[in-house]
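To whoever is on call:

I kicked off a structure prediction for a single chain this morning and the downstream step that reads the tokens threw a length-mismatch warning. I double-checked the sequence; it's 466 residues and nothing unusual in it as far as I can see. Pasting both halves so you can look.
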Amino acid sequence: MEENQKYFRRILRTDKNFDIISRTTMVADRKAVYYFVDGFLKESIVEKLLEFFYSVTPEDLPEDSEELSKDAMPYVEVELLEDCEQITTQILSGVMCLFIDGYSRCFAMDCRTYPMRSVEEPDKDKVLRGPRDGFVETIVSNTALIRRRIRNPKLSMEMKNVGSTSHTDVVLCYMEDRVDSGFLQQIEKRLERIRTDALAMNQESLAECLYPHKWYNPFPKFKYTERPDTAAAEILDGKIVLLTDNSPAVMILPVSVFDIMEEADDFYFPPVTGTYLRVTRFVIALLTLLLTPTWLLFLQNPQWIPPQFAFIKISGDVYVPLFAQLLILEFAIDGLKLAAINTPGMLTTPLSVIAGLVVGEFAVQSGWFNAETMLYMAFVAIANYTQASYELGYALKFMRILLLILTAVFGLAGYAAGLVITFLSLLLNRTVSGESYLYPLIPFDGKQFCRRIFRKRIRFDINLKE
């Protein structure tokens, strides 16, 4: 006991860290020491455990650690540990560890309760219908939200530990009878081979460790969601879901571009409405990519504009080249987004009014921008929010800027080259499992392609005679 106390006093620095508690007590006639982190345990649970051990007599204590953990410990989740590094990690994770003189192993009681916010609907993944709960930063609560929806013994949740310093908990969630076993083994090996100090940015750090190649391709390899119903649906579809502690979003893999563009609202409405929403999203995504570059190309070649579309021409004087206007507005919109994120809530409304007047009305009157340029860029800015994935929205933005630059410099040839580069970025991109990013379009699978485009009714078996 004395050696253990000296070791953990030196490693945990209990004399300096006010929140790491070391409590010496007696269990029957033996000396005992508790170690736990203040704030991770409920005081009522600690009090009940101490009350129980104060009442234990020497005759009640078995000589073996295994028997004591099974027969005499007044708690459900008790684990026997011997490795000092593992014990240290468990203590810092919030587990209460008990050392009793005369026993060779540590009793780790998982009675932690992390500080957490309430389970509420996420701000980004909102739906018109459906449940209003969402993931939080506590991994145990997130796994419980999935278990609540999939009550099947074949739902597996494996806990992994990543980061030599942070020791971040990562949960591998899948259905044993539906997941691709080969891809599952591949992900498990990649998780075990990760050699990093810490997952400082949670999901993004884990994504970069799992797939470190082809950083220059902006199209995302993973799908993120904060909705438990979306995660459960993907698991039932044979996907793997990775949950990271301290993150309210889960990572879904492998996914194609069609998987990323799906939303929960597609399935909370009747098939006709769901199909309409899905097709609209695809069309708007295409418009956000092509609208401003195509408009710039027609203005460079006004003889191509049909008479019935003559209204797309610039009506006023142009003081700043159109290409420069479009490029400035591309960056200005992102600047407004960043300003909105960092603006205090009480100042959001007045600053929005000021920004609307300055950027909108006065910018046109000053001659910096033309009204038509502001109109088309406003549509593009708003249409970007039809995509639930931030990563896909920015990928389309980068491709649009590339199209603008090539069109402004090389005209029609540059426009065609930009389209080819965008298509190749999608075609040559691969999912984490190595499959085509455009499946089921390339390679073409008619049945799956119809399923991605059209929202079909769920399959069920029913005896009409009954």
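Update from on-call: the warning came from a stale cache, not from the record. Cleared it. Sanity check on the structure: The chain has a mean pLDDT of 88.
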